[in-house]
């Protein structure tokens, strides 16, 4: 559906400078002037902007366009709630950073991360979702409608779904970034299966690194656990388990100086953190397990977070603020999977719909059998 033939919203309708709509590689409408500084390198699409100064208003405002946000959009759009998605400057979310996904149901041959997210977005658009590839930098959740600002564009929502996910932390060396999805990963659950009978390394010193190293021994012939310090942050039981696993070799005081290989990981250049001495070893995979950063900065003045900075849902997907819902990795550091995030998105959209109905804003709730 285009802006020209969209019926007016009962809430006053979208006020967008139409300009020339073009298809983005993710299937989204692009409206207004491109801002190269904010354009996503992944989507390669112009930023969408509302330019007449009036807030873009909707019944369901969704922040984030990973599996959680886009699934919420599909459900909300099919419930005639005319959702608006503020997709962020990294539209598609974390799966855009990886190559093949083999554990998302419905794709027995596997599917590329970007293809999967393209499909999610196309499906959300098919039912009338509007996209703005902008980062939210400020929110006001003090009352309805809730207000959200993204690069000076104001949005208003009768309900809001927060689905901003979490960002895996990386070493941030050039070779690591270049070989992401080609032997470098940040998700053992997702990618361990690809390393059957291979020699691989895990970087990190916390419980997640220990857990991932242990998990990866199910597949790999050998796992090198690399930690740049002498002591580990991980709990004693996890450290003992790693040292006790015959397939794990622990290297303390060891940093990754470079990931070797042109098209795929072929080795690592390691540096002794005390002496600076370097050595290269052959390796076929590298898992970075140094943590995640939940994308919750803009919400922290309004909603409680746990000790790691993740949002804390209050009841199912509802937050402590009526009308504000939470979905996906922004709150979940236990499962961190596309399918669980998508499930959360569906739950949040249904919860939002029922809440809007209870408030007299939406007419018919999705028929569910509970
Ligand atoms: C390397 C890697 C490989 C993976 N492989 C798999 C796999 O094979 N199978 C699997 O099931 N899972 C995999 N995962 C995990 C999976 O990607 C996540 O669990 C899932 O993407 C979480 O979805 P989400 O929608 O909650 O958040 P995300 O995917 O993190 O999406 C968050 C969205 O919010 C947006 N955003 C953030 N801040 C703002 C803001 N201020 N304003 C507006 N938007 C914002 C971002 O741009 C993004 O669009 C992998 C993860 C990584 C890192």
Any overview of this molecule?
The chain is an alpha/beta fold. The protein has two domains: 22-167 and 293-358, FAD/NAD(P)-binding domain (3-Layer(bba) Sandwich); 170-288, FAD/NAD(P)-binding domain, CATH 3.50.50.60. Helices cover 20% and strands 24% of the residues. It has seven helices and 21 strands. Strands 3, 4, 7, 8, 9, 10 and 21 form a seven-stranded mixed β-sheet that branches. A hairpin with a 5-residue loop joins strand 17 (267-272) and strand 18 (278-282). Helix 1 runs parallel beside helix 2, helix 1 runs parallel beside helix 7 and helix 5 (207-216) packs parallel to helix 6. The structure holds flavin-adenine dinucleotide. Flavin-adenine dinucleotide binds next to helix 1, strand 11 and helix 7.
